[in-house]
Amino acid sequence: MLFLMLLLLLPAESRSQTDPAQCRYALGMQDGSIADDDLTASSQWYESTGPKYARLGRDEADGAWCPAGPLHPSDEQFLQVDLRSLCFVTLVGTQGRSGGGAGKEFVRIYRLDYSRDGDRWISWKSRTGQKVIQGNSNVYDVVLKDLRPPVIARYLRIIPVTELTSTVCMRMELYGCSWHDGLLSYSAPEGQIMAVPGYPIAYLNDSTYDGFLERRLQFGGLGQLTDGLLGMDDFLQTHQTRTWQGYDYVGWRNDSLGPGYVEMDFLFDKQRNFSSMKVHCNNMFSRGVKIFKKVSCLFKPRLISDWEPEPVGITTVLDDKNPSARFVTVPLGNRVGKELRCQFSFADTWMMFSEISFQSNMEVIKPRVIPVHTRLPSPLSTADPEPELSTMLQSQETTPPFIVSWPVDRPDDGSTSVLIGCLVTIILLLLVIIVLILWCQYVRKVLEKAPCRILDEEVMGQHSSCSDTMVVHSSHSNPTYETVFLLDPEYQEPVLLLHKLPELSQSAEDSVLILSNPAYDLFIPTSFPLIGWHVMKNKPISTNVCSGDYAEPDLTQCTPHQGFQSSVPHYAETDIVSLQGVTGSNMYAVPALTVDSLTRKGISVGEFPRQRLHFREKLGEGQFGEVHLCEAEGLQEFLGGVVPLSDPDGRPVLVAVKKLRADASKNARNDFLKEIKIMSRLNHPNIVRLLGVCVCTDPLCMITEYMENGDLNQFLSQRESESTLTHANNIPSVSLPNLLHMSAQISSGMRYLASLNFVHRDLATRNCLVDHQLTIKIADFGMSRNLYSGDYYRIQGRAVLPIRWMAWESILLGKFTTASDVWAFGVTLWEIFTLCKEQPYSLLSDEQVIENTGEFFRNQGRQIFLSHPSLCPPTLFELMLRCWSRDTKDRPSFERVHRHLQEHVA
Ligand code: ADP
């Protein structure tokens, strides 16, 4: 009996208050409990295609909501639903226009915006940062789309998206349940990364948080702590697909937060009587993780009142025996509050939470009563609350047989029979789960025994738990399951993935190189252009590997090179990492033709008389030697007045003179000359202009225009964001329009380089210069120089590479293209909008950055993106994310980037 009681209690403790697998009730479009008045739209074509006709499964008036006029790709039209109270929304169902069979319109893709207060709108994003949701492909099928993460909102807007101008119409339903917690937002210190040698890295950030981040504090939003997903006992594991290790938890390290506790504020929709708070914590003490030692909460009855002085809290009993993750219930003594502030004290090195929920007196709140609702089945297996299924189910035009009726806001009348009924259902469900788990394990074992190749194809063809789309067809009578995509982590060996990637696809016979970088062992077929990585086993590098696909063979591998200055650093040390095993020319797989065409013709600027350069001061030190500020006497005449300089009246003009150091090697000298040749051919207002050279005698010099404000990195890092404070205190500052203008200028320079098919390969703020009028010019063609030089003096088995700016394919495949420049441009934008106060991925070591590169390559949603800089407008951050698309074809062109930025500037 006791066992039975325990069993009955188990589900309650292993499930969150709002369980996304259960919270799938129709919220009232179809059954009309969402009133016509609560449906609005940005526009409607006719009265008969107004928002009130957007009800899924119904065919009234002209049969759907259609926004006015044909929809253009740049249009933003929306259908808005007011749910009257906060709801936890887990699914969206869409359907085209029926119009008694005459309708032809539907919405192929859409976006979703949501708001909790009707004021601040947030764009929904999938866990991998995708905003668009696949909609319908015909007018009659209902397509149900799981929202991962779910949305907690009162208002939702569906925004049809179209790539071509077309007429769109839609019907829809929202599915979910009431958000009983009533929590509007929580704030917490930013979650951290656990990197312990010998263990996989755990990323314990709150990745779906929809608020703001400032000085490492997240505030004004909700995220993973309220997504209904409970973490597992081992925090590295997760049920979620397309995520990373540590995904389920938000975690903090004790010594990183001064006071020994994590302080969190919780803001609610209304004043409530709180009976308890439940915190789901990890307790893997063998890894230094424990539940909190004590918690103390203060209450604020109203938003404008002070915190009441008496706290409520508990001291917990710590557990060194049982490593299970668990809910810790904190009684809150029925205190009244609109806002709570709780301090959770560390009991060990780490504290990790996966969910926090509040139980409050429901008398205070009166949500809209939704009489009876249909609930969609949870996605196949309840053991995995978020399996990703593509499911073909039967017609939705009539009531589908799998939908069960269930009241959302069930009154708790204490009826024993209801309780027993629920418990029995839970037991039955548990049994079903156990059977399913056993069955899955059996199937997995069978699959494991299958040959690798078949396995691969089988997985592609059979794993149905990978898509979050459910299509309800009008013609089938039984639910059948369709598979779409591979995502079982067991089958994600890079070599297998490579077979699937079009641009990387290889024949099965290709042998495999194992990269010798200790940071990650990656299996790559030998015909990949990974020239120069050390071969650890299998076979030595073959001639075909040495010659690769590129114009220049890797001579370092084929004929060992002697006598160069391997110690010469190329970049600011902190920005660059040495990749052992990466060698010279393989890293420079850039169109040699362009380079040729830029260098073939020789230097196209004149020899400036050296004696007319008068040294003023040292500006800096580069890889070739010092950079001096000089007066260039008579430069205006020397240039024939073609280049307007700031001092046109014949007086000495200030210039920057880069000198090749006296002890430079022959190769360095050649590189220097080649950089001169390239620069002399470039002519654009946002590229540093070469004005003259001194190459007839040593030391070789290049004379460029002087940029008074030095490089952009140090310029921005010495400034703050413009505000009344900076004005009042005379603090050097930059405004948002300044930053946008700078970004647009860099994109303009890059657009020019791209038009020449020229790849820069080292775009970063440190390589952009700023003049007195805030004109930005791209400089430093240092890396590009090497592609055609065949000169690898600085490498000798070690390459110095700016990995934090590099696209994954540049690091893994040595592939540098305009698309990888676009990636670096995204990072440069990020630097600009963080005012260069932080290095990209500052929390990651170089090895972790490279590991992350592997994640970009695998693209299973575990890659870490640079965070949204607080100064950066959301659309610009979206642009950055697009620059970091895995597939080069998904990255925007510089043309597009420039257009986008120009719009911002305008
Ligand atoms: P390298 O590319 O060889 O490493 P740089 O061209 O970056 O060297 O020059 C080193 C430093 O000299 C820069 O960081 C910058 O501060 C300064 N500098 C270089 N060129 C100019 C210039 N045209 N105007 C003003 N400062 C310059």
UniProtKB/TrEMBL annotation:
Enzyme class: transferase
Positions of transmembrane segments: 418-439
InterPro entries: DDR1-2_DS-like (IPR048525), FA58C (IPR000421), Galactose-bd-like_sf (IPR008979), Kinase-like_dom_sf (IPR011009), Prot_kinase_dom (IPR000719), RTK (IPR050122), Ser-Thr/Tyr_kinase_cat_dom (IPR001245), Tyr_kinase_AS (IPR008266)
Keyword field contains Glycoprotein: yes
Residues spanning the signal sequence: 1-16
Membrane topology term: Single-pass type I membrane protein
Single Gene Ontology MF annotation: collagen binding
EC numbers: 2.7.10.1
Chief location: membrane
Alphabetized CDD domains for the sequence: FA58C
GO biological process: one example: positive regulation of phosphatidylinositol 3-kinase/protein kinase B signal transduction
Database matches in PROSITE patterns: FA58C_1, FA58C_2, FA58C_3, PROTEIN_KINASE_DOM, PROTEIN_KINASE_TYR, RECEPTOR_TYR_KIN_II
Domain Protein kinase residues, every copy: 613-901
Limits of the F5/8 type C domain: 23-177
GO cellular component: plasma membrane; receptor complex
UniProt keywords, alphabetically: ATP-binding, Cell membrane, Disulfide bond, Glycoprotein, Kinase, Membrane, Nucleotide-binding, Osteogenesis, Phosphoprotein, Receptor, Signal, Transferase, Transmembrane, Transmembrane helix, Tyrosine-protein kinase
Protein's cellular compartments: Cell membrane
Annotated SUPFAM superfamilies: Galactose-binding domain-like (SSF49785), Protein kinase-like (PK-like) (SSF56112)
Catalytic activity of the protein: L-tyrosyl-[protein] + ATP = O-phospho-L-tyrosyl-[protein] + ADP + H(+)
Pfam families according to UniProt: DDR1-2_DS-like, F5_F8_type_C, PK_Tyr_Ser-Thr
Subunit structure: Binds hydroxyproline-rich sequence motifs in fibrillar, glycosylated collagen, such as the GQOGVMGFO motif, where O stands for hydroxyproline. Interacts with SRC. Interacts (tyrosine phosphorylated) with SHC1.
Family: Belongs to the protein kinase superfamily. Tyr protein kinase family. Insulin receptor subfamily.
Stated name of the protein: Discoidin domain-containing receptor 2
Organism: Acipenser oxyrinchus oxyrinchus
Name of the gene this protein is made from: DDR2
